[in-house]
């Protein structure tokens, strides 16, 4: 079980590298501003592994570099920031470089699953595309009924909750989920908290996500049987917050 | 997204003129509009002039006055703003009432709901919903406003949800007086604050929980409720159901949703959401000046504010007699006056206040307005409350963009 999970994670990581390489080679060659200065981490091993450009600015290598960094930033938003909130939480803001820097630092200190090497490119991307000088786009409009959200539960619509064995679920959780979501399912790196989450009241959405995976989470359809996924759900639904925190004190 | 419909600024002028003419909602002025649009477009040559003219009309044609759709700020977690149409009635309909949370609405039906009462209590207890329903129930109307309502109007800009005018609503809340529960459980000497925590879990152990408190005095106020119902319906999950705190007159961050635990304490709740966020400096500080923690106070009572609900922003109104309508509210006390003016006159005129003054509720107002000539107008209102506080033209800037209450201004085109 554990071995196949590791293979799954490695494959996801490999696909990410391939995707980034494709994005890089297909990028538009348009001039880009150099990233604003910040005090983020120094270039990492990955950065240093790429040859530093010797070309004067405006060359196609520089364009490639800038496009690559933009792709890294967009991927960070989709794969990392979106674990906890949708993109619009970020892209509705219009901020100065100093404010963007402070926001990223705050989110990292709050446990954002943002790799250090992605922080600088993300900062440059946000400061460039969502500056305090840029106009705000008009917001979306929707009726409450039309919004697809797990948070919105329709009262009086009974849902059948499949029932499993929570003790088996607890063991499965420790072996398969705790590494990312934390020992008590209150969140870890990169998995968010699962306790009391709205998806636990939507078995179809839960089973779909566990089977197929989402963002940085691999699919578990070849790791956990449907019955085991239900065991897990049963255990997760039994966890109580805030008791789970207050009892630790 | 639905917002695409309004994203027209990059379309060419002829297309816009066509839409101008097609706008079915504006039957009243349709013919005049076509004439006006044609005349304006026909009379201008040169690309820049065309663009400038186009911008001067931007927005005036595509706002339906009856658009009750919510404004989507973020979809996950759900942060939804009320449209102006939601404020036409005394009570805001639930499906048009703004929605705000930090971590998203939790699943609330995983176990039978219990409210734990603990801390400096003679008889700590856990109450089920059935037990709460057996307490004497109180129903009262009260206005709920997010502290960040109007944040986008501050300059320099401030990070946070980009609320404009609609992070506010007025509902009828039914529930149990918090005082009844605390008194029955017996408050021990030394108690000074009531700490509260809801069922919504932060995403990471490094993310601060939404742990809040209100002073005991306010917790014992006769209108501070643990609400079970909103506008007569069981409290919807998006609005904190099954249980939320209601503190009429106080800013929304105190109205804790999905209430699970109450801890009566000597001290305020610890942590970011009580000790750092939702605080204002005692005196306003200019942008860039970092307030000292000791200078910051938790937000409690709202400030005085008014909103124009009719005419709608960026709408077209006929030359002739019009009625300007709106709502006004304050925190402690009640609204005693609303004044109206436009950018074409210098005098403020009093509006007529409707109904009874009531702390914690909003008050509707109306005023006759007969514009002297066609053209673009900026109409303005400002409210005054029973403590003599008057809405300022511009709210002093603050670090988090809280409690904007500058004059409410609405642009409209008189034709």
Average of per-residue pLDDT values of chain B: 87
Q: Would you tell me which CATH topology of one domain in chain B applies? A: Sulfite Oxidase, Chain A, domain 2
Name the helix and strand elements of chain A from N-terminus to C-terminus, one letter apiece: HHHHHHEHHHHH
| CATH class descriptor of one domain in chain B | Alpha Beta
What Rg of chain B is obtained from the alpha carbons, in whole angstroms?
24 Å
Residue windows where pLDDT falls under 50 for at least 5 positions of chain B? 1-56
Beta fraction of chain A: under 5%
Q: Which two chains form the greatest contact, residue counts included?
A: A-B, 56 and 56 residues
Helix content of chain B: 10-25%
DSSP strand count of chain B: 23
At the fourth level of CATH, the homologous superfamily of one domain in chain B is Oxidoreductase, molybdopterin-binding domain
- Name the overall outline of chain B: globular
How many whole angstroms does the radius of gyration of chain A measure?
A: 21 Å
Order of helices and strands of chain B: HHHEEEEHEEHEEHEEEEHEEEEEEEEEEE
Unreliable stretches of chain A, pLDDT < 50, 5 or more residues? 6-38, 41-56
In which order are the strands of the major sheet of chain B placed? Answer: 4-3-12-7-8
**Gap between N and C termini of chain B:** 32 Å
Tally of helical runs of chain B: 7
CATH architecture of one domain in chain B: Alpha-Beta Complex
Counted beta strands of chain A: 1
